[in-house]
Design goal:
This is DUF4924 domain-containing protein. It comes from Barnesiella viscericola DSM 18177. With about 180 residues, the chain is mostly helical. It folds into two domains: about 70 residues, no CATH class; about 100 residues, no CATH class. Helix content is about 75%, strand content about 0%. The protein has eight helices and no strands. Helix 6 crosses helix 8 and helix 7 crosses helix 8. It is globular and about 50 Å long.
């Protein structure tokens, strides 16, 4: 909860990946708030009021996961909405004559996206979601201490660079500092 709100302010891409981790963490604990309380919340040396807030946050996520039918797989609508917002900004950035560097970064990343989509066999997944899926997949491989091929690392490096740029543009947009239209 604390990390999530901090990441949402600082880097929307990291926030989304973090929230995907939280979804998987909740699933790993069987959507059991008491287990989450014992294993995740209680070990923190926090005031009781903060622990209570954390429990309520996890409970609300569990409730949403159940009501949205994503107990086993998939993502919460609130996380899908972040992806929708990012996609909207992405498209606006690509259309803007004021952001040639963004367009260049995207087109440098596009071959990796196309290759990843072809490997996944799911052509319906959007470009940005493909990027996030790749980053999340590598994150899981690293957590499992599995080997990652050099060509995969090269792709991930480019995708990370591109999503970092998008996250920075998102932050600028939210702060009212991003001017995309030609004046």
């Amino acid at each position: 909860m604390i990390i999530a709100s901090q990441k949402k302010k600082e880097n929307i891409a990291e926030y989304l990946l973090y929230m995907w981790q939280i979804e998987d963490l909740i699933r790993a604990y069987g959507l059991d708030i008491d287990r989450i309380q014992q294993q995740i919340i209680d070990p923190y040396n926090l005031p009781e009021a903060q622990k209570k807030s954390m429990r309520e946050w996890y409970e609300s996520l569990i409730d949403m996961m159940r009501s949205e039918g994503v107990e086993k797989k998939g993502h919460l609508q609130l996380n899908k909405n972040v992806l929708i917002d990012l996609t909207d900004l992405h498209l606006r950035l690509l259309k803007s004559t004021r952001e040639p560097f963004y367009g260049a970064a995207f087109f440098k990343t596009l071959p990796y996206i196309v290759e990843l989509r072809a490997k996944s066999g799911d052509e319906k997944v959007g470009e940005l979601e493909t990027c996030f899926n790749a980053l999340y997949g590598v994150l899981l491989l690293r957590l499992q201490k599995k080997e990652i091929k050099p060509e995969t690392l090269k792709a991930i490096e480019q995708i990370s660079s591109f999503l970092s740029l998008l996250a920075e543009k998102y932050k600028q947009d939210k702060a009212g500092e991003l001017k995309l239209e030609n004046d």
